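Quick question about two entries, pasted in order.
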Amino acid sequence: MRYMKHSFIVLLLSISTSISAYTMPVGIPNTTLDFQQEMPSRPNDWNTEKPGYYYINYQTGSDKQTYGTPDVPRKSFPSPAPAGSYIEIAGEYDQGFKTYGDRIYVLNGTDENWSAGEAGPVWVTEAKDTDGAISKVGFLVMGANIYISDLDFINGANLKIGSPSEGRQATNVVAKNLDLNGGGISISADSTAPVSNVVIYNTTVHNLGDVNSPTDDDFHVISIGKYVSNVWLLDNIFHTASGSGLQVLGDLNNRGSTNNIYAGRNEVYNVRQAGLWVKAGSNVVFSSNYVHDLVSTSWSPSKGLGAQYQPDELWMINNRISGVEYGIRIASTSATTWDKKIYIIGNVIHGIEPVQENSNIGPIETTSSWQSAAIHIASSDEQYIFNNLIFDAPNGIDVSNRDTTTWIKNNILLDVTAAHVNEPTGYHIMLEYLALNEQAFIENNYFGDGMYVRVKEGVSNKIHETVLSLNSKNGASGNVQGTNIITQNDIGQIMDGLSIDGMGFTTLKDAGTNVNNILITQFKSQFSDTSGINLDIFDEQRSLGNSIDIGPFEQYGAKQIPTIPTKPGELKIIQLPNETEVTTTIY
């Protein structure tokens, strides 16, 4: 059944109720589509047919009716449906299918104020006097200015917006307040008929395929294919599927054919392989999502967010990820003529599990950068890993590829000891083939208990167990060492309460290094209609520049100046203006 606005997302935002008040998640541009507008009212006196108002019941209706009424319905869906159509579905609209099959519906709305039978979008919804649902049908829509709202899809019915077949263009499509049970949503196109401007909002998609199937079924909740641009997935719930939550698969080797895909404030759980994933797509932003408790398979470990093949400007901002074997993972990527750049900024990643024993990667039992980790980079050209919190994971940040450059700044890395077999602990950072000051830069990070950092030095690898050792190397500076600060139970309290008060983070205030060149300059060069990445994971305004905090949380109050000792001892934080000293032990 369709759901009203889900409450858990409040941990990352306050949700508004009108388009003028709606605030996009940080890093996601506004859409020109008024996706929160109210649908037209049905006629008060619908005893006779009224132009523009369709009442459909496939079981009891007759196409002798031009429009239909609740007492005497029309049988089949009008196609093409003209501008200003309002279409109610009663009963199960299955077009006689016993099993799944596609049907194409042409909806020719206009970008004008709605006027029955004359102008404005085409609206499709369930009957207001009885139940109504799309059943079994692959409901494929094409056309323009289409609103599908407050409607159930049952018995495996799918919503398809455009298709790879020639000539099925779709523009300005909103799907909101839907419940799809057993079927997913696909958005795809052909080069001659692209799809653009699509919003999927406040919708639940669930129970696709058998999540316990022993085969690789790939029933993805949301699939975005070739020649698609400007898609917003906002405030949805995706769960229980034998494929990924979201799969972005544009045209390989055709840079930018699928572009500007935004997923914000969605919850994804109990799907297989990956929560939100990119195989090919340009300018993709995953912001403020909650991805948790995914299902691993023997052929594919569970990943919260990530990419493979040909990601092009992938930004993962202010997400919460837990209950997976890799929090964020960039798997093998293709050789491309452009640099594949990955941005991992402001995320909270916790409760990461070891890879299961029957995986082709193997459990946590050897010294390998391919082990389970909060963040694992197996390939790409450049990666920027800033202001994340990592807690309760087998490893923190692992990089396995050689030909790459990695910037690791302003992160909090705590408790990387989970489920190791032959080793007492994992690595806070493991850069298996990267040398400091050449391919890697580690600056102003906070390390919890048992600091363990491995980087390449000459032909061998060097282990750093203190920040004094690490900071003495070119390419590393400003790193701080202390305790783990929090427990696993604290994460829920922090995220539910939108507060870190009393949690011991105060020593990290204003202790970060300036990353404005990425958070503002680089981001706005890709997404000029935004203010950059200027909010923390609680949607609080960040102090940027030289006043940025370490970690994903902005702390307000007096500016503090960290003093890094030159030998083991105490880290002193002088709090202005009253010059109260706060001390913590550094090792």
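Here is the second entry:
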Amino acid sequence: MADSIPKTTLAPGGRPGFRPAAPHPCEEERLNSLHSLHVLDSDHEKRYDDLTRLVADIFDVPICLVSLVDEDRQWFKAHCGLDARQTGRDLAFCAHALHEERFLVINDARQDERFFDNALVTGPPHVCFYAGAVLRDSSGLPLGTLCLIDHKPRQLDTAQLERLERCALLVENELIQRDALLAERARATLQANIDPITGYSLRRRYLQRMTAWLQKRASQGALQVILVKLQNAERLRKQQGVDFYEGVLQSLSHQLNENFDDEGLLKGRVSHDTLMILLPRDQALHGMRWHRFVEQPWLLHLSANTRPDLLIGAGTFISDDMSGAELVDVVEEELDCASEWAPKDKSVQFADLTDNLNLRLEMNNRFAQALRDNELCIHLQPIVSAGRRSLSGQEVLLRWQDKNRWITPHQMLRIARHAGLDEELDIWVLRRSCALLSHWVSTRAEGTTVLPLSLNVTASRLVGAEYMDVLRRVLRLYRLKGDCLRLDISGVESFIATPEPLVSAMKSLANDGISFCVDRFGPEHDSLRLLSMLPIASVKLHPRWISLLQTDTRQGRLLKAWTAALHALDISAIAVGIEHSRHRQAMVDLGFDQLQGYAFGEPMAPDEDYGKWKARVESSLEPHADKSADT
């Protein structure tokens, strides 16, 4: 009978309900207990699957789940009548059940103010009735539920609820007894803040030890940091299983230990996929020894699909007065950025972080003063029409010169974010750009139209009411209309599941005449559905899409399909990162409408006179492009 239960799938998105569950009062202890069972992301087990089928038959419901509530998701150890293996925690009924003593019963979710607008109610699997019996560990902490789901309203009497509770006790016993010896050992090591896989300190313990470690070596001069990041960790864990993933981490730690066996070193697993070592500079690793990570048999015997992709970063720095937590945050940020530029050898990227680290540590304290003293400036980079090579727009780029060196925009943004000044920086750029536009508009020759300026802003910043209010006030202050600005929105992918706040904010500003462009679209996060909902005029495809043309023969067909899809939505396609003018015709053939990159002009400080500025830019387009082609 159970085999005849129809299966449904989850909706790809939708707006979550108005009231996601609050964290449990003992959330940290509850999560530690759940993780110590080593059950999350484990393979199917017949005894759990048989149990959910039996419970579904007993209560005559289409869906029965063993649901475990993790930090940001609910994961199904067993699922009868539902294909999905997990959902977001903000949508989870079971997250609410954690706060109940025994049960959470929702007779009709469509009438419940917590759930009536939940995507799991309004869309697949169309939850109407829900009954969840709380699953607890041996100490009484809630881990999840054994839950029943129906597509129509239901009620359970007292006898049925007691029967459901007895079924839940069977699941509890299975969970608590699951590999009891391993669970006990993992629980003990977690209490000691030691990672049972690598033997390294976990993040909290690592930060605690780092403070004393840095103080002890403050007089020893420069230190070195080494990081090893498993870039495809999530894919390996999902495709190859938890045991394989943990085996790779264990092999990585063994390789590091062979090279670094001094007890005075500080080793930590600072995140699920990153190992970190701090050591005095005189013990630093030099030369070709890094290639041991590439040449080891544990890497070479693996196929391309199962081989770990490693990002290894190393840098020498002076810690100064930065705390351990601040130092780890800075180092992790620089390592993530290195994935964009570090050279790759086989499956390993090597990045020398020394210059970037020292710049960050030095500039952190200088940035706030530089912003207050207007040491920063704006440059403009031309955007050209793909077919005619004429100026069609200009993007505002941030520049900062300190001690005869230019700080890159990405470095500035990271420094500002670390200092908590990223919002203040956005407003500074907005005011400086509007001041320039106001001057151009008031002094331009009669009949001259000033091209709008493109400003970069994150989607999360845009949905904040404060930024919208500031934007409107600045426009009024400089007596400008909205059509003088185009906002290049980055980070829209984070709104795929809940696009309504972003759509509302953009439509509100569009009523003021402001236009929009989606910046750095794809390739990891691309959604035509989301683009079709946004009031945008153009899309800048991610530079990585263009770079892949050199190595993937299929990339051209993919780009042509994307530009055609954008045109079907009446959206202009912009290719960015174009370094050579000889690529212009290829971009035209692929369907791009506008181009941007060093092949068509470097960012330059704007002139006071708009006519002279525009003439200077347009006259430089062709010669500059020819020079780029020669290069």
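Reply: The first helix runs from residue 27 to 36. The CA atoms of residues 423 and 461 lie 8 Å apart. Hope that helps.
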